[in-house]
Amino acid sequence: MLKINKLHKSYPIGDSSLHVLKGIDLSVEAGEMVAIMGSSGSGKSTLLNIIGMLDEADEGEYILDNVPIKNLTEKKAAIYRNKFLGFIFQSFNLINYKNALDNVALPLYYQGLKRKERIEKGLFHLEKVGLKDWAHHLPNELSGGQKQRVAIARALAADPKLLLADEPTGALDTKTSHEIMDFIQSLNDEGKTILMVTHEEDIASMCKRIVRLKDGVIIEDTFVEQVRASQYV
């Protein structure tokens, strides 16, 4: 599903540069649920941005679903993101003036689907996250947990190969975090491949594998006994 070899990334700082990723090797198989952990500055966000095609490595190899991801124009990167990836963000990243349904259906617009089909698929995914009755509510009329469910529905709408979650519970209280993780685990149970950045150990323990970064290198890569979020819900 995902294969990364000897990935390096530096950023210029004044006359020098900061070497953020220092030869990352990582493989993720279809159906895995992987947590990426590390303190601030460890390189986890940079790695997620490269996997999400929001940034590009200086050197190394990145292959997603047998497609080499390299030297992409912005247009090509956007096409690949829409084809391969679904994003879930800590801050939800919903469009405030669009209702829940229009937010969910947005990726389908970029895939060229007609409005009727976008609406049908959008409602299907809102129902999947338990928010069909909230389809015509604006984001400011939703709770944090509901906003994240809308964001998850949007991420699923285009049927991505890989879900990328960046601190998906970071803005939520404990109870709501467990509810969201319970739902994310159910997606993984259905076969969806999930890669999640988190700084919370209890959230990471709800994945099946934990990859720890420090100073731009992987210092630990362990399969773990998954804690089911449902026991807390």
What does this entry look like structurally?
With 233 residues, this protein is α/β, with parallel strands linked by helices. It has one domain (30-57, 73-231): Rossmann fold (3-Layer(aba) Sandwich), CATH 3.40.50. The protein is built from seven helices and ten strands. The protein has a six-stranded mixed sheet, sandwiched between helices. The chain has a four-stranded antiparallel sheet with strand order 2-1-4-5, with helices on one face. The radius of gyration is 18 Å and the shape is globular. The model has no long low-confidence stretch (mean pLDDT 92).
Low-confidence stretches are none
| Number of domains as seen in the coordinates | 1
CATH superfamily: P-loop containing nucleotide triphosphate hydrolases
Tell me what the CATH architecture is: 3-Layer(aba) Sandwich
Helix percentage = 25-40%
Quick one: overall form? globular
**Annotation field: number of helices:** 7
Order of helices and strands: EEEHEEHEHHHEHEHEE
Mean pLDDT: 92
CATH fold-level name: Rossmann fold
- Indicate the CATH class: Alpha Beta
- Rg, please? 18 Å
**What spatial order of strands do you see in the largest sheet?**
6-7-8-3-9-10
Content of β-strand: 25-35%
**Global structural class:** alpha/beta
- Tell me about the largest β-sheet: 6 strands, mixed
Strand tally is 10
Distance between the termini: 31 Å
